[in-house]
Amino acid sequence: MLLFRLFGSALLLRVGNVFGGGIMTGKQCSSSSIRYLNQSEAVALDQDLFNEYKFSVDQLMELAGLSVAMAVAKVYPPSLYKSSLIVCGPGNNGGDGLVAARHMKLFGYKVAVHYPKRTPRPLYENLLHQCKNFGVDIVEQLPHPKDLINDYNILVDALFGFSFKPPVRDELKPALDALLDSGLPVCRYSKVIYLLFCCT
Ligand SMILES: *[C@@H]1O[C@H](CO)[C@@H](O)[C@H](O)[C@H]1NC(C)=O
């Protein structure tokens, strides 16, 4: 989802350069004109946004989360996929997920967040606080992955960003298993970025 963070915020600034121009004109685009950033390109773009364009983390996170929520709503509308679970990791990626949760709630989803490893910083604490105030359920203990289908129609993967390095910590394994083994539709950023580009 960190790519989202980049793309959501870079939308009007930089992505045209990254993609060789042509697609960020606000017009329709075709999938053939899109390629994905690799890890080092993503890191570089992130740095540019902070250093060159002077965006703050909060700004990027808000744009990213809103972009995710909009893209999810476009593909999996709340009228058909009413109940969502957003699986949030400890870093910026998880922060994007918390923002997405708040917006998805406003879009009419029933929203739950699983946030097993919390970052004790005001930014994250405030985002979580906002989720609670907006009526997002905070799920401490996930059911078995195969049982998620009883409670949810769609999952959003906000677990790891481009700075992820293996191995996955034990405390995050249930969250990862949920995303891998539920059999539910999982919104991951690669898919949603495409939609973000082509459908907005
Ligand atoms: C990422 O892409 C750049 C070109 O844009 C290339 O120079 C670099 O080697 C690539 N890195 C990896 C790990 O593939």
UniProtKB/TrEMBL annotation:
Any single Gene Ontology cellular-component annotation: mitochondrion
Organism expressing this protein natively: Manduca sexta (Tobacco hawkmoth)
One example GO MF annotation: metal ion binding
Lineage: Eukaryota, Metazoa, Ecdysozoa, Arthropoda, Hexapoda
Keywords: Isomerase, Metal-binding, NAD, NADP, Nucleotide-binding, Potassium, Signal
Record's signal peptide: 1-20
Coiled coil location: none
Annotated PROSITE patterns: YJEF_N
Protein name per Swiss-Prot or TrEMBL: NAD(P)H-hydrate epimerase
Keyword Transferase: no
Name of one Pfam family that matches: YjeF_N
Main EC class the enzyme belongs to: isomerase
Catalytic activity: (6R)-NADPHX = (6S)-NADPHX; (6R)-NADHX = (6S)-NADHX
InterPro entries registered for this protein in UniProt: YjeF_N_dom (IPR004443), YJEFN_prot_NAXE-like (IPR032976)
EC number: 5.1.99.6
Domain called YjeF N-terminal: residue spans: 42-200
